[in-house]
From TrEMBL:
Protein name (record): ROK family protein
SUPFAM superfamilies linked: Actin-like ATPase domain (SSF53067), Winged helix' DNA-binding domain (SSF46785)
Family the entry assigns: Belongs to the ROK (NagC/XylR) family.
Origin: domain of life: Bacteria
InterPro entries: ATPase_NBD, ROK, WH-like_DNA-bd_sf, WH_DNA-bd_sf
Origin species: Kribbella alba
Amino acid sequence: MSPTERPPSRLTAAVAPSLLREMNQRLLLDLLFSSGPATRPQLARDAGLSQPTVFAALSGLEKAGLVRPAGRPEVSSGRPAVLYEADPSAGSVVGVDIGRNWLHLVLADLAGDEVARLDVRNTARTSRSLVDQVSVAVQQLTARAGLTAEAVTHTVVGSPGVLDPHRGRVRYAGNLPGWQRAGLAEALADKLGMSLTIDNDANLAALGEYTFGAARKARQFAYLHIGTGVGLGLVIDGELYRGFNGSAGEVGYLPILGEPPSGEPQWPQRGMLEMALAADAVVRYATEAGMADNLTAEDVFLAAGNGDPAARQAVVTEARVLARLVTGICAFFDPELVVVGGGVGQNLAQLEHPMREEMARFTPMRPQMAAGDLGADAVVRGAIATGIHIAREIVFTSQLAGTAAGGDEAG
């Protein structure tokens, strides 16, 4: 043996089989979640593993409570093999959508299937009261599902703005009073007492439409959320693009409509484009066109659909602003598809024609567009899509570690 050669490592020989077993178990569990129940021969074929390897891996997963028998397939002759399926009840996920007016919550199992739902008015006026209200709502939701809040594997909270992980604060969330204070993320995690992710609502809505909705067949698309605020989620090759600081998609700050109002402070809470495109802008355009006060954006679109000329003028004005934004998105990103959602964006049927007329003045690009399939559920369904991947990993690691520890003690 030369001086540069090392003797065989006994540690490597001891660790490698357990690592390989874990990799095989993880692969099979992913297959069962993504493709549904399967027999051992089917799993061996799909995973490229031997049947004895699949048998051993399934045995460990079943002992850990992650996989269970699911009967036998119907066959015309012979004794059918046993079907196995991932056990979706091995963990649970809570998705929370924090909006200015409403909190939408869904509890789902590890397959992403809804178990319980709760919608409550957002009455909070400070960050502390909002943290308290979210905590109470999660407790009410889990009680509906017959669980305790502590039994939830992972929670994903969607809100306007971008989480700064270093200071635990949410930036660019001008529509939620006090939500940008430092330490908020820690306060929410402490109050909920569970594994937690906080993410941008437009990003989560993009993932929701990609996983469950209008963008399921698209690999590169833009999700444009227009409601109380304005946000953009970008998906490239199936992955969210967040940018260097996580602020990609904060298009509400685009300075594309002239000069900011005089007297505005430096770094305003709301950007110029958001003030010209969000729901309150639709109401402003309607009142300027002659409609009565005390309207909502929903009222304006309903009146426009019924032929009210002032409401239709407001919709055209909104569509022209939207055209500028979509033109910019296409020039920079060239998406396969633009999905539009949110309380305003879901009215794409009324907005699209005047928007395309306006776009024709600026660009030869003709993007494919679609209204979101998920409506008001887009953010919370994206939260569930995000949460189940994290929760599956948590459950896989903890359950198998507990099984291994039990085996070691028994030995």
